[in-house]
Write a structure and sequence with these properties.
By secondary structure, the chain is α/β, with parallel strands linked by helices. The protein has four helices and seven strands, in the order H-E-H-H-E-E-E-E-H-E-E. It folds into two domains: about 5-80; about 95-154, Chitinase A, domain 3 (Roll), CATH 3.10.50.30.
């Protein structure tokens, strides 16, 4: 097989990559999450235009795929305004819990695309977030084989 034939196949496959998977859950976002999505669409639009201008098919395909994903997420975004009841856990709450092994953890419940557990945010669809929504300070929740107590909600 000649190298020219292989190169032609690579170029053809770079023209469009399969789409990124989109969650089946509603696209709930915080106000900050919406701004993040908007910034990502803006960044990718510029990056895609630059890739096309440079005739970089591989980068153009990658940015086109990501741009399709983020544009879809922007169109389906539902900004959730926190309810006036700060005493109960809800979407957008910052929650501090105590695990039964003595560990304390603080995190904020956010949309799927804005969640970064290492930075203290978890998606509203995570089992822990689902178990805590509607709970108040002092409530103890069974989670897996253990329990967690809600220490603080803000």
């Amino acid at each position: 097989m000649s190298r020219a034939f292989v190169k032609e196949q690579e170029d053809a496959s770079a023209e469009e990559l399969p789409g990124r998977l989109i969650s089946e859950h509603p696209n709930l976002v915080t106000k900050e999450g919406l701004r993040q999505i908007e910034a990502e669409v803006k960044r990718l639009t510029a990056e895609h235009a630059a890739a096309q201008a440079a005739e970089d098919r591989t980068l153009a395909a990658a940015t086109a795929r990501d741009l399709r994903y983020w544009t879809s997420r922007l169109q389906s975004a539902e900004v959730v305004t926190p309810p006036p009841d700060p005493d109960h856990v809800h979407f957008g709450s910052t929650v501090t819990i105590a695990r039964d092994d003595g560990r304390r953890q603080t995190f904020r419940i956010v949309g799927e695309d804005e969640a970064e557990p290492a930075k203290g945010t978890i998606p509203y669809v995570a089992p822990l977030a689902r178990a805590l929504v509607g709970r108040a300070v002092g409530d103890v929740v069974r989670l897996g084989d253990g329990e967690v107590e809600v220490l603080e909600v803000s």
